[in-house]
């Protein structure tokens, strides 16, 4: 079950939810069939709550929303991109541990 703190975005809502956000935004580019994506999902749920008010955590299904994934050159999943002030700021590809993810977020925000 996914956290209420995570916002699911689409090609249609990406501009408003991510590019136009007041806070830095972590976007998890994922797909339902991706094993490593499922592994990091509970970690992202935890971090969405841990960083509430400092970072917005979103998920974009690359199967359903290919346009946005292509725009940011997402080739492998999971790909995590942190957006700041409407631009891609930092990227991490592949499943990472919670401490690695915390470091990644802290270095970017």
TrEMBL record:
Question: Among its keywords, does the record have Lipid metabolism?
Answer: no
Transport: present as a keyword of the record?
Answer: yes
Mind telling me which Pfam families this protein's record contains?
A: Thioredoxin
| Annotated ranges, domain Thioredoxin | 3-109
Q: Which residues cross the membrane?
A: none
* Superkingdom of origin organism: Bacteria
Do you know which PROSITE patterns this protein is assigned to? THIOREDOXIN_1, THIOREDOXIN_2
Keywords associated with the record: Disulfide bond, Electron transport, Redox-active center, Transport
Q: Which NCBIfam families match?
A: PRK09381.1, thioredoxin
UniProt xrefs under PANTHER family = GEO12009P1 (PTHR45663:SF11)
Annotated family: Belongs to the thioredoxin family.
This chain's protein is named Thioredoxin
Q: Which organism is it from?
A: Cellvibrio fibrivorans
